[in-house]
Amino acid sequence: MDSIRQNKVARLIQRDLSEMFQQECKEYTEGAMLSVTAVRVSPDLSYAKIYVSIFPSERVEAVMKSLEENKSIRFILGKKVGKQMRIVPELRFFVDDSLDYIDKIDELLK
User: Fold this and answer.
1) Strand pairing partners for 52?
2) Which among 21, 38, 88, 96 counts the fewest CB atoms within 10 Å?
3) Residue pair 6/41 in contact by the 8 Å Cβ criterion
């Protein structure tokens, strides 16, 4: 069960990362559409798991490699949330493939 503070930090990170990927960090998405679907923050607020949905799904590997290699995402996020947070958590990116799973289930049911 997440604390209120964890939930607030997670929402703040999700909102700011979404804005960053739409406006400032387009070079990391490599021509794909990227959505931040969920953020989970550790109890000590030092780590954040970011779940992203990538469209088209053929570009998932390239975009994930780009996100993992670039440490400047944390730096840019730190500039945005620096006034609200003392420490910017270490970011770990994971693929949220729930939409692909839903499409697969729909096809099977048809």
Assistant:
1) 36, 95
2) 38
3) yes
Instruction: For the chain, give the percent of residues with pLDDT over 70.
Output: 99
Contact 5, 45 (CB under 8 A): yes
φ/ψ of residue 84, rounded to 5: -95, -25
Whole-angstrom distance, CA of residue 38 vs CA of residue 24: 20
For residues 98 and 80, give the distance between their C-alpha atoms in angstroms, rounded to a whole number. 29
> Model-level pTM?
0.85
Q: Which two tokens stand for residue 77?
A: 């996020």
- Confidence at 1, pLDDT banded by 50, 70, 90: low
Could you give the CA distance from residue 62 to residue 74 in angstroms, rounded to a whole number? 19
Q: Do the Cβ atoms of 28 and 73 come closer than 8 Å?
A: yes
Residue 48 near residue 91 (C-beta atoms within 8 A): yes
